[in-house]
Amino acid sequence: MHMHRRLFACSALLSLTISLLAAEPVGTSPSFKGPVGLQLYSLRNQIKEQGASALDFVKQQGFVEVEIGLESHYGLSAEAMKEALDARGLKPIAALASLDFFLKQTDKAVAEARRFGVRYVGVAWAPHKKPLDEQQVLSIAEGFNQAGKLLKAHGLQFFYHNHGFEFVPHQDGTLFDLLVQKTDPDLVKFEMDVLWTIHPGQDPVALLKKYPNRWALMHLKDLRKGVKGDLSGGTALENDVALGSGQADYPAILKAAQEIGVKHYFIEDESPVVLEQIPVSLKYLSTVTF
């Protein structure tokens, strides 16, 4: 009888241990707490080709949080995407769309944000003509403030995802600094894309510390070693490499991001070998120490 009890107790303890291990949030380590989600743009080609079944990969990797598009779902209807996410227990946290969508179709943008239950809504590109200049940045900042105000009225937080072209030298800093200074801290937050911070020659750690109250989200992405960037906001997709194998000093970046209170992290992998790289990136994040 006692043996049975002991066996039962051991079995229960083993099951509990396994369930606790399984519950360990994906992409986190004893140092880095996440949470880590996936930007679904990473699987744009797979979703176009396979439909909702492409999202099985997201669940299999252990992701819970995702960042989505708000205007487009890579061939799926909004209803089908919502159903596919719900069926796999995937939770949309943030969504990206065009600035015009937020400014000119605010009601629709709000309705879509509510459909998916996201709190953060933002843009990853600011319409501009090259070269970017002070006047254009002032106009962009005005648009961001307006979008932020419209969305805040509906309980949504607007944000801007940097894309590399904003770091044109300006006075004693860059035009990105001007953009931060001319946007309302309450209405406009930022999502740091690590690749698009390194590519134009900026230091992610310094930028995080410079504006500790503005960064809410982060795109985890790495730039191939040896690639010399510029202010174009563009690079070959093959230059998007697995986390930890590129130019980014991720232990320092994640430490700084965690210290200033970045709320959510999303892997975004635009490479042609995304399905191979995402597991490598997750494994790397699970080993990060600082």
What's the short version?
The chain is of the alpha/beta class. The chain contains twelve helices and twelve strands.
Description of the structure:
With 290 residues, the chain is of the alpha/beta class. The chain has a single domain (33-285), classed as TIM Barrel. It is built from twelve helices and twelve strands. The strands form three sheets. It has an eight-stranded parallel β-barrel with strand order 1-2-3-4-5-8-9-12. Strands 6-7 form a two-stranded antiparallel sheet. α4 links the parallel β2 and β3 (91-96). The longest helix is centred in the first third of the chain and has 22 residues, at 2-23. The chain starts with a helix and ends in a 5-residue tail after the last helix. The model is unreliable at 16-22 (pLDDT under 50).
